Amino acid sequence: MSRLTTHVLDTSVGRPAAAVSVLLEKHTAGGWRKVGNGATDIDGRCFSLLGEGAALEKGVYRLTFGSGTYFAARGVDAFYPQINVVFEVRHPEEHHHVPLLLSPFGYSTYRGS
After folding, report:
1. What confidence tens digit (pLDDT) does each residue in 5-54 have?
2. Average pLDDT, the chain
3. In what order do the strands lie in the sheet with 31-39?
4. How many CB atoms are closer than 10 A to CB 113?
5. Number of folded domains in the chain?
6. Strand runs (DSSP E) across the chain, as ranges?
7. pLDDT band at 62 (very low <50, low <70, confident <90, very high)
8. In this predicted structure, what is the pLDDT of residue 1?
9. Three-class SS of residue 54?
10. Share of the chain residues as helix, strand and coil, in percent rounded to the nearest 5
């Protein structure tokens, strides 16, 4: 399993949010650099953001979730077209799990396990 995973739950319906696009970027001196991308599976999980064999390094990262596209596909008006979650990896040897609790007009995130 990757050292970085995410899980998206749609709290407006009480179910996992499948097919949410997720972009992973790392902050560098020149700005943000794409590190990986993926989409949530039927259980709302994304295990492959870093790609096969890629290592997680110390640094500041950003996950961008395609929340607007997710809700539009369901015919639901939503306030946030995308959600950016910026976090810092200080111990790359540890597993980093970044869940997102999502609804059309709000969201919450935390460091999971």
Report:
1. 999 999 999 999 999 999 999 999 999 999 999 999 999 999 889 877 78
2. 95
3. 31-39, 21-28, 59-65, 83-89
4. 7
5. 1
6. 4-10, 15-16, 21-28, 31-39, 45-46, 59-65, 83-89, 96-103, 106-109
7. very high
8. 58
9. coil
10. 5, 50, 45
Residues 42, 59: Cα–Cα separation, whole Å:
30
Torsion angles phi and psi, residue 70, rounded to 5: -60, -50
Say how far apart CA 112 and CA 7 lie, in whole Å. 9
According to DSSP, the residues that pair with 10 across neighbouring strands are 15, 102
**DSSP-derived secondary structure letter, 112:** B
∠ CA 35-10-107, nearest 5°, is 70
The structure tokens 């259980």 sit at: 43
Q: What is the CATH number of the domain that holds 48?
A: 2.60.40.180
The pTM of the full predicted model, rounded to 2 decimals, is: 0.95
Domain that holds residue 13: 4-109
